[in-house]
Amino acid sequence: MSKQLPPEIIRSIVLYLKNDKKFLYSSLFVSRDWFRGMIDLLWRQPFHLLYTCNKKTISTSSQSKNSCHCSEKKRQFQATNLLTTLFSIKYNEELVKEGIFKTKGEKYMFNYLEFLNVLDLRDLYSAIQDWNQWNKMNKSINSPLLNFLNNKFTSLTFNYNIFKYFFINSPKLKLLSFDSEFILHKINNNNSCLPLNKNIVEDDYWVNYNILNDLLLIINNSETIQFFSNLTELVFTTEERKTRIFSSLSQICHNIQKLIVKVKFNVITNNYGTALTRETNNTLEEAKQLISLIKSQHNLVYFELYDTHEAGTSEILKSLKETQHDSLKTLILSDVFINNNNTILLYLKYLRNLQELRLNKCIYQQNNSPCYWEDLWLPNLKYIQLDYIEEHKEVSEELSSILLGCSPLANKNLLINKS
């Protein structure tokens, strides 16, 4: 008989391969020790795994309908089983009374909701849609359990009730996201299933609007306040306005260490006069409420910003300087509007614990302004990445030269790319 690996070795292997969907599922039934070593990881972010494509080699530029080989029917069936399992845990006693389950705790070895640590509203919404689609296609199947759960959530506020269910019944949730940029998939070196992209993009604005509106109602619900106070990571990259979301979160959410957000400034051809003023004001108001959220945090370590007006960028950086200068270690700005390099340099000198700086395709309004960097020294800076647009090549190279001279960085830790 072959010797079993010690549990601590199994755990190390599982943690190393925790984002490999195929490995996790294939190893689940190797032995009881393997099962114990990975069960919490499987249920840590089950919707993320559900909508992670099995094919890892898809490149963003080459994605097509034929690139993803995930079965839509299989995914709908898996979404139905996943939601049914998570709902049945909460309603176990009622299911026993209805005679659907014979004994309390039947079928489930764990309260899987206690493992749930990451919740993306985009993934959850897609699971709900897949569940609905499965029900429509399988009306002839008489499942007492499925009928019970369908009746439980059938109302005009169907999505809201399901969202609220997860917020209330998942005590270990730490990361909440509405990730239209698929940041979490990119970080984990995974790809989102193309059917997931298709399902939401077809009616993108109203879907996102309704999800954000449901979330706002939940944030302001007294039953869910404790959940938000326990969060340590927020990811909001949807383009729709999140002004009220940021405002409400700033009042109850104070332990965020990682914040990834988009404050979209729409630049449209012939966007001038009243339309431009309205768009600018809306963007700056959203940035203002984001600033309130930043200032309300006790220990923000990682901040990533997508898009936004140059005035909003400046004020957001100012808030980091005023309230997060001791804690912030990573700063990433992508596709944001910036007046000139002084906007960056002015606030960087206060972020003395900064270790990583990434500027991706920033749009400069004034390319020829002289730079001032007196007293700038970043003793802990370990890595800089500048991805520049061709028309801003000169100003980007100037900034990289200044940062190299104001930090202990070696050239090998400086990456400059043309986007």
Can you give a write-up of this model?
It is a single chain. 47% of the residues lie in helices and 11% in strands. Helix 5 (72-90) packs across helix 7, helix 15 packs parallel to helix 16 and helix 16 runs parallel beside helix 17. The protein is globular and about 75 Å long. With 419 residues, it is an alpha/beta fold. The model is unreliable at 57-66 (pLDDT under 50). The protein has a nine-stranded parallel beta sheet with strand order 1-2-3-4-5-6-8-10-11. The protein folds into three domains: 1-42; 68-108 and 118-170 and 185-224, no CATH class; 241-419, Leucine-rich repeat, LRR (right-handed beta-alpha superhelix). It contains 18 helices and eleven strands.
